[in-house]
Every structure is written in structure tokens, then in C-alpha cells.
Amino acid sequence: MSAFVLALVAGALVGLALGALGGGGSVLAVPALIYLLGFTPAAATTASLLIVTATSLTALFGHARSGHVRWRAGALFAAVSILPAVAAGAASVRLPQPLLIAAFAAVAALAATRMLRSSRATSPTEPGAVRPAKALGTGAGLGALTGLLGVGGGFLAVPALVTVLAFEMQAAIGTSLLIISVNSLASLLTRGATTSGLDWTLIAPFTGTAILGAWDGKRLAGKASGPLLQRTFAVVLLAVAAFMLVDALT
After folding, report:
1. Which of 54, 171, 151, 69 is nearest to 110 (CA)?
2. Residue pair 126/148 in contact by the 8 Å Cβ criterion
3. How far is it, in rounded angstroms, from Cα 66 to Cα 156?
4. How many helices (H) and strands (E) does the chain have?
5. pLDDT recorded at residue 6
6. Domain limits of the chain?
7. Is residue 97 scored above 70 in pLDDT?
8. What share of the chain is helix, strand, coil (3-state, %, to 5)?
9. 210 and which of 3, 15, 94, 236 could share a cystine (Cβ 3.0–4.6 Å)?
10. How confident is the model over 28-74, as pLDDT tens digits?
11. Is the pLDDT of residue 127 over 80?
12. 81, 184 in Cβ contact below 8 A?
């Protein structure tokens, strides 16, 4: 199978996950770019930010039309994330590649674990009181994660918005896309010089099918079982995390 076709297929899967779950799809983008398309870890995280930004903005538009975006709260949450995202983005290009891969494997495993836990919940949990300090800390951590590893961090943003800011799930998914978009754009500002060497003949089709997949993912979320989608995606993420960790350690 040619690299072009692989880029099309991988992009569609990333977009589906992002549109359906409000996050997690970008965690697949980096390993797909590294192991399927031959990108270096540093180039893959930069390319992932480009893909995630375009896809998140597309998915955000769809959720906004449905009234599922809390603009004010999302903007405040994202504002806290910007500086950590910029700082981490600048630091990431100086880290050893095996360390980047190992860190990414850990994040993928964390994402999978969170998805499995939430999918097994039999009833919605009661949100607690809004805790500003925890919200600020979560926003800053999310920005750093985006800048360092090129992931949107929706798998952290969605549960944080539900438990810390007492959002209902649909609003959390829609608002997380706003946060992801802002963080990704901020991180890209520090990587402008690293985009010149990227293979745009692969990034363009990857991004194109990811955008289309995001629209399909939103429709899929309204038809398929949310817990089933999360469990399936979590199993895939665990396998990816294990493979990347072995690769980093050997």
C-alpha cells in the first residue's frame, strides 16, 4: 500500500475519533505519521499539530451549529493553556527522540485508561463544585501536553470540563474542540521553522480525510453507542502505546 493511501486511511480514522469523541484522535496521528509514513518523532509532532488544528476547527464548527460549545468558559480555559503550550512547544524540539516516543506512549496509555473507565460508568456522575484552582491547573497541564507532544488533549479536556466545570457531556465535547484548536495554534507558533521540511504531499491528504472524518464522526456519535466507541478506541490506543514503548526502549 502506498504512503499516499496510508495517509488517506489514517487521516480518516483520526478525524472519526476526534469528531465522535471530542478527543483522542490526535493520539493516533503521531504514531501513524512515525510508523506508517516515516516521519521522525519531532516532525510527526509538528505535523500532528497542523492536522489537529485543521480537524478540530472543522469539528468545532459542527458542534457550534448544534449549540454544544460554551464559548466563554472554553476561551478562559484555553487562555490559561496558551503560555504552557508555547513553552512546551519550544522545548520539544530539543528533546531526544526516544524520550519523545516514550512520553507519547505514556500519554496514549493514559488516554486509553481514561476512556475505559468512563465507558464502564453505568450512570452519570454528579458534578462537584467548580474549583477554579483545579481548573487553572488542568488548563495549564493541557497546554503543556499539546505543545510537547503535538496532541490536542481532548481525552483530558472532556473529563476535566465535566468534573471540574460541571459541563454536560455534549457541551464538554464541543468546548474541548475550542480548547484543542487554541492550544494547537499556540504550539504551532513556536514551530514555524520546523514546518519547512515537512512532507506536504502526505500531510495534505492526511488532513483532508481527517476533516471529512470529523464530520462523519459527529454523525456517528449521534447513532452509535458512546461507551462502545470509547472501549474500541481505547483498546487500539493501548496496543499503540505498548508498541511505541517497546520501540523507545529497544
Report:
1. 151
2. no
3. 22
4. 10, 0
5. 94
6. 3-248
7. yes
8. 80, 0, 20
9. 15
10. 888 899 999 999 888 888 898 888 888 888 888 888 988 989 998 88
11. no
12. no
CA distance 243 to 237: 10
Query: Which three three-digit cell numbers place residue 52?
Result: 489537529
Residue 8: its pLDDT value, please? 94
Q: Which three cell numbers stand for residue 100?
A: 519523545
Q: Which alpha helices (H) appear in 93-199, and where do they start and end? A: 97-119, 132-149, 154-163, 169-189
Tens of pLDDT, residue by residue over 190-214, are 776 566 678 999 999 999 999 888 8
208-237 in b/e form (b: 16+ CB < 10 A) is bbbbbbbbebbebbeeeeeeebbbebbebb
What's the grid cell of residue 32?
501513524
Could you tell me if 148 and 89 are in contact, meaning their C-beta atoms sit under 8 angstroms apart?
Answer: yes
Distance CA 106, CA 110 (A): 6
Measured over the CA atoms of residue 73, residue 74, residue 77 and residue 82, the dihedral's sign is: negative
